[in-house]
Design brief:
Helix 3 packs parallel to helix 4 and helix 5 packs across helix 9. The protein is globular. It is built from 9 helices and 14 strands. 50% of the residues are buried. With 298 residues, it is α/β, with parallel strands linked by helices. Strands 3-4-2-1-5-6-7 form a 7-stranded mixed β-sheet, sandwiched between helices. It has a 7-stranded mixed β-sheet with strand order 9-8-11-10-12-13-14, with helices on both faces.
């Protein structure tokens, strides 16, 4: 099993004929993702490399049975694409687009509470279930099927951690890049129960960063609800005070969201803490020696 997507997911690409959409649609299909439709307003009735293109998401869903989407749409239109995915009751939608205004994301968060749609992002690298499906811009070749569930606020650091795991022969069940924005569709506390319920996932890895309260909230959830081992790496130990950081989610307010507060909360929850991205793989390997993780195919 896996969480969120697998080889049975029927994927529609919103913005399929744009520069980013077309490039990554090819990459996702090459990986094996079951792309059944694309959406580009004004280009309905055409096709993109054999994929039927529709003017609206509603038409794409009605004609192909798509249940999952990925959004490669410019910021000015990306929020509308998310609303379409919610209204058409897709199970999962992934929004890679950067630059959706925070006020708009707050309204989208409210809309999500009234639906069953899971939004990953915006401003994220996407998610991948190795060997089954990829939705996003992740470099496919570094992933390997296996028992480690990974959730990350940083795309590049998740690649580094996954590369370290794969080099040691340790695969991943599903890897989710939730994005670095302060307001996003899915947080760690949304993913932890999914990984806990997934029989294929035996160890959970959380990659966090300074700012916000995602890690502290995750620590509280882990302390009371998670029975599987959790390993975490938090970036920002040497971040200079008062300096503006790259991610919107790294804003520190009223002394909360600091590196120290996150480390303290995770330690209190019994999480195994790594000092570097590559140390995550070392810790997971030590856990696996004690736990005898299931061997996995390539």
């Amino acid at each position: 099993m896996s969480i969120l997507v697998d080889k049975s997911s029927r994927v529609v690409v919103q913005g399929v004929t744009g520069k980013e959409g077309s490039f990554h649609t090819r990459s996702m299909r090459e990986y094996g993702t079951h792309v059944v439709a694309g959406v580009s307003p004004g280009k309905g009735g055409t096709s993109f490399e054999g994929i039927p293109v529709f003017n609206s998401l509603a038409s794409a869903v009605a004609n192909t049975g798509a249940d999952t989407s990925i959004i490669f749409v410019p910021p000015a239109f990306a929020a509308d694409s998310i609303y379409e995915a919610i209204e058409d009751q897709l199970k999962v939608t992934v929004c890679v687009t950067d630059g959706i205004p925070i006020q708009e994301m707050m309204l989208i968060k409210q809309k999500l509470k009234e639906s069953n749609t899971v939004l990953i992002g915006s401003n994220c690298p996407g998610l991948i279930t190795p060997g089954e499906a990829k939705l996003g811009i992740m470099p496919s070749h570094i992933f390997k099927k296996g028992p480690i569930g990974v959730a990350s606020r940083s795309g590049s650091l998740s690649y580094e951690v996954v590369f370290g795991l794969t080099e040691r022969g340790i695969g991943q069940s599903t890897v989710v890049g939730v994005g670095g924005d302060g307001v996003k569709g899915t947080n760690f506390t949304d993913l932890l129960p999914m990984f806990e319920a997934d029989p294929e996932t035996e160890v959970i890895v959380l990659i966090g960063e300074i700012g916000g309260a995602d890690e502290e909230q995750a620590a509280q959830y882990i302390k009371s609800k998670i029975t599987k081992p959790v390993v975490s790496y938090i970036i920002g130990a040497s971040a200079p005070s008062g300096k503006k950081m790259g991610h919107a989610g790294t804003i520190i307010t009223h002394g909360k969201g600091t590196y120290q507060s996150k480390i303290h909360a995770l330690q209190e929850a019994g999480v195994h803490l790594a000092r570097t991205p590559l140390e995550v793989a070392e810790i997971v390997e030590e856990i696996s020696k004690g736990k005898q993780l299931k061997s996995q195919a390539n």
